[in-house]
Amino acid sequence: MTDRIRDTFNRDDGQLGSNWEVACGGLSIFDEAARPIDTSGSVNPATPSSPVDGLTDERSQAFYSGSTLDLANQIIRGVWGHDDVTPEDVTGDPSFTILARSTKDPLVVDLSGSEEPLCHDQSYGLRVTCPLNGDTPTLKIIKKTPDRRINEGPSSTSERDDAQVLASFRLRRQDLNSDPSVAVTSDNKNDVTGVTYKGFWQDMRLRVRGTDGRVTLEAFFNERHENNPIMTFVDHKDPLWSVIGQPGFEFLSPVQDSQPAGASPFDQVAKSVMACTLFDASTIVHFDQPRTVAPSTRSTYGRVVDRVITLVEKNGDAKYSVTAGGRQKRLTYLDFVMDAEAEIIRAEGYYDWLKTEQEIYLQDGNDLMEMPEDFGELLQIRPGNFNGAPLNWFDPGTFRQYAQNQNSAAGKPRSYTDAPVSVNQRRQVKLFPVPNTQAVDTAGVREEEDAFLVVEYYRRRLYPQDMDTALPVIPQGDID
Questions:
Q1: Taking residues 293-312, what's their average pLDDT?
Q2: Strands 138-144 and 20-24
C-alpha cells in the first residue's frame, strides 16, 4: 500500500471539509455522516433539524482532493445506510455510488445536450440502488463515459445519470445487514422482499486493477463477501486503465414530484434519504498471499532446511554462507530440499501426494472461475454443497454449440471449457449454465453457505513465500 485516504466524518455538522471538493449538488455532514443535504441556500436555506427534513439536488458528487492516489490499482470502500423512512411524493430510486479514477473529460465540449456540466463524467464505480417500494437493493458495477466521445458514445442504459451498468446483482436477505430478530434460514436466505435493511449500515468495496488493454473490477459486500468478490467484470472496451483520477462518492436522490417554478433540469429538488459514514480509498502495489501458521509439531520447509544444514555441515563439509548472487544460506538449501522433494515424487511415483482439492464459491452472473495458485493439472470439478454429477468438459467449439442448444443460460453449472488465463496469470475455466445461486438447492449440506464447487487437481511446484510456515508436499509421516 502506497497511499491511503480515510474519513469517518466524525466532525461537527456542516461542510464536508477543506479536503473535499463538491463537484455538483449539495453535501453536508449531519450526525457524523455525509448526507446529500444542500445548505448553500439554493435548495435548503439552513441546516435541517433532522436528515428527513433535508432537501438536496438530484445528483451530488464529492471527491477527495487532499491527496492524490499515485497508482492505477485502487481499492475504494464506502459504508452507507438508508434512513428508516419511506419517502412519499417522489420519483426515482435513491442510490449511493463509490467512485474510482474519476475525472471530467477535458476533450469533450458539451453543447445543447443533457449532460450535467459540472459533475465528473469519467469513472468506474460500485453503486447500490434502493427501490422505493422497500425491496432489497441492487448492486451494480458501473462505468461513466461522456455522452459524446471522439469515437462513440455509451451504450443504452437505464441509469438516471446515463452510467453504463457492466454487471449487477440483486442483494438478498443473507447478503444484507438487517433486523437481527429475524434469523436467516435456508427458507428465507434468498428473500428480496420483506427484508428490514433500512436503518442498518452496509459495507461495500470496489477493487480496480489495470493491465495492458483491460481493467478488472471486483465488488465486495459486507462480511459475507469480504474476501470473495460478489461480482467481477473485466472491461476490454475503451478501458480507463491509464487514468488515475480522484476517488469519491455520489448520491442520486429521489426527486420531489412538485418542483419550484423555474427549476433547472440540472438542479432538481430531491429528498435526502441516504448517508455515508465512512469513506476509505487506497492504492495497492501488491498483495501478500494468505498464510497458515503451522503448528509447532509439524515439519515446515524451514525446519527441514535447518536439519539438512546440520547434517551436511556437522563434519566440516562444504559450508554455504553466501552464494555469488548474494542469497542467504537457508535459501540455497531450500532449493536443494525442493529439488530432492520433486525427485522423490518422480522416481518413486508418489503422485498421490500432489492430489488436493479446493472449494470455490459460485458468483451470480460470473461464468469464469479462476483456479488456485498452486494449480497444476485438473482432475475434476464436482458440486460441493449441492447434489449433482461432476461437471462435463467440452472443447471450446463443442462447448459453444452445447450452450446455444440449451433453453436456460443461467442456473446450476453442468459443464465447462478452457478459458484464457486471468489477470493473476492463473488458469480459468468457463462454466455453463452461468451460475445462479438462487437456482441451486443447498438444503441439508452446509446449507448456511453459498453454493460452491470442489476442484480436484494435482498441485504444481510453488516456491514458498515463507519457509517457516509453509508445509512440504511430502506427508508429515513420510518426511523422515
A1: 78
A2: unpaired
Pairing of strands 410-411, 434-435: parallel
Q: Write out the three cell numbers for 366.
A: 460470473
Give 19-48 pLDDT, tens digit per residue. Answer: 899 988 889 898 899 999 876 554 444 444
Alpha-carbon distance of 45 to 48, in angstroms, equals: 9
All 3 cell numbers of residue 129?
440502488
DSSP label of 175: G
Q: Which residue has cell 443473507?
A: 174
What pLDDT shows up at residue 450? 79
Share of the chain above pLDDT 70, in %: 81
d(CA 185, CA 47): 43
- Measured between alpha carbons, how far is 268 from 57 in angstroms, rounded to an integer? 5
Instruction: Report residue 345 as a C-alpha cell.
Output: 515424487
User: What pLDDT, on a 0 to 100 scale, did the predictor assign at position 44?
Assistant: 47
Three-state SS across 190-209? CCCCCCCCCCCCEEEEEEEE
Task: Return the SS3 of 23.
Answer: strand
State the Cα–Cα distance between residues 326 and 305, nearest whole angstrom.
Answer: 18
